[in-house]
Amino acid sequence: MSHEDATHGPAPLGDVDPEPMHRAVDALTAALHQYVDTAVGVRAEFGASEADDDPRILALENRVGTLNAAVFDQLHDALGMHPDLTTSVWEPGPDSEHDDADEDLPEGTVPAEAFYLGFVVADPPAGASMTLDGVIEQLDEAGQEAASRLVAGGYHVLEWAASRGLAPAFGDDPDDEEDDL
């Protein structure tokens, strides 16, 4: 990804062919439809946690991730933009209660936001001494280091967690094993 071409310059691009970008979106859309169909079938066979680890699901999640990257690359290469199209953002529902987590913040502090750093990690090669279970241990160590660096940089880290499968749900359960700073 070069940032030295005309697509990253200050001048408008003018005539751009959107077709390659549409093809990338169509491929991603097809993969998402395939994921839904497969997920429905897998859940008909297995429980939720087993379905999350089903090889068919993991393969499709990898494919969707690859196609997300292809959409990014098409937009980046053609337009010079850096689209953030894979971030998940949940807005509070109309019946949700106000979260009082920001009451503990020092005066003048802006409300907190959750940030995520995700990894898709494949099984190690056959015969390797490590397993996927070791990944969470490494991420937990890295999380502690990152949280410490943020605090040292002046940020107020309310919570942090390392999780497998899904992003952690902060503040939902007082018995969660998340580490607080």
The helix/strand series, from N terminus to C terminus, equals HHHH
| Largest beta-sheet details | none
Secondary structure: helix percent: 40-55%
How many structural domains are formed by the residues? Answer: 2
Gross morphology: globular
Give the C-alpha Rg.
21 Å
- Number of continuous helical runs: 4
List segments where confidence is low: pLDDT < 50 over at least 5 consecutive residues. Answer: 174-181
Cα distance, first to last residue? 38 Å
Q: Please, what is the average pLDDT?
A: 81
Number of strands: 0
Structural class: mainly alpha
Beta strand %:
under 5%
What would the keywords be for this entry?
single chain, 181 residues, mainly alpha, 2 domains, 4 helices, 0% strand, disordered C terminus
Textual characterization of the structure:
Residues 1-20 are annotated as: Disordered. The chain is mainly alpha-helical and 181 residues long. It folds into two domains: 6-79; 95-181, no CATH class. Helices cover 43% and strands 0% of the residues. Helix 1 packs antiparallel against helix 3. The two termini are 38 Å apart. Residues 174-181 have low confidence and may be disordered.
Summarize the structure.
The chain has about 180 residues and is mainly alpha-helical. It is built from four helices and no strands.
Topology:
Blueprint: H1 19-45, H2 48-52, H3 55-79, H4 133-152
Region (Disordered): 1-20
